[in-house]
Amino acid sequence: MPNNPFIYGPPVQPANLIGRRAELRRVVGRIVNQGQSTALIGEPHLGKTSLLYYLAAAEKRHDLYGANATQLIFVTLDSQAFGGDFTAAHFWEQALQPLRAQLVDATPASAVAQQFAICQANGFGTFTLETLFQRLYAAGYRLVLLVDEFDTLLHHPILNSAEFFGGMRALASRSQGALALVVASRHSLAKLNADTQAFNPSGSPYFNIFAEVTLGVFSEDDGKTLLKLAGDRFTATDSRYLQQLTGGQPYLLQAAAAALWEACEDGVADGAARARAVFAQLYRDHDQHFADTWRVWTPAIRQAFTCVALVNAKGLLQQHKFDINPFLESLPNLEPELKDLEQGGVVARSAGPLAGWVVTQPIMLAWLTDELLRHMRNEADFSQWLQGAELEGRWTRRQRDQLWNVGQKLYQGVKDLHDILHIGVDIKLGGNAP
Hints:
This protein is an alpha/beta fold. The chain folds into three domains: 194 residues, P-loop containing nucleotide triphosphate hydrolases (Rossmann fold, 3-Layer(aba) Sandwich), CATH 3.40.50; 49 residues; 132 residues, no CATH class. The strands form two sheets. The protein has a five-stranded parallel sheet with strand order 2-3-4-1-5, with helices on both faces. Helix 7 runs parallel beside helix 8 and helix 15 crosses helix 18. The C terminus is likely disordered.
């Protein structure tokens, strides 16, 4: 019995990474070109951690960095693993471990080793670290520090400080390229800078030394490459359905393909039945992914997505005398947020009549529908949901009333997941709705 080839959840192993050529080219170019720093930005489960692993993989270094590979020292830190008492000294002690193993312990009389001892004796203060990186530069080496879940540092009781962020910025900018930072974050550099502005109201933003590289969903070709792992088990219609349902979101596409593989193993031969099984499992098992994505979005992005979702459901909602115009009128003012959603592969511009925007991840649309319906039992629940999503003050009274009224009607009519899927969604499999 062949193993299911579709693995989701853990980071992708370097040998199995698909796509991301343009993003890798830009990050690698910045590392080798004077050790410039980069921020990988993307929503949950877009492959940021997998890219960090790939950048540091010993077996990929020659292909990526060429003759520069022997001068690069890599270290990867996960910010989520830092405890509440984790200090800047702890951070730099961990960050410098590979340097210590490669240059300090091996050559204890070198200038780098001597300065490392001074850093250690002085609690890895910024001034002593700056001298260490000067010594590293003189020796012809570069430390490439990869920090995953970087945005979680903004909630750390100690590291969320002017001293830490300012020190990191100073070290990277003054090291002559001996320290290159690559961080992965769910939040944009603009948000990171805004969230730390209180520490530095009149100085340069802490994160303006980074170039932002944003990850989106798979291209159609990359999605096809992934689905080829199924061999001849998936039909062309199967593969098209998986791409349409997930919008090419890498994690969701892997999870949906894994579900389809299992349905085939279970002997489900009918295409429409397989599609129903995939949708039900994806929707049931990955609720936390959708919730995480919603949580990461700003209130304005949540509003923009909800507006596009309602516009996409125009045909259904008009049956309940739903006035879509107030939501259509909101879209021009949400253009920056719509562009962010477009870059993340959640919505796309359309030549159709729906105000130029469509939801490209129907499974996310179904999740939002269910999220709304769960809070339509009474006015108090609805208000609480709007407040929790920070949307209460973003709707006009007319919009709010329209949403509540139609939600009540839909709440009475929706019976199961199959109904939810078809609210604003029209995905066909072999000519039959799943």
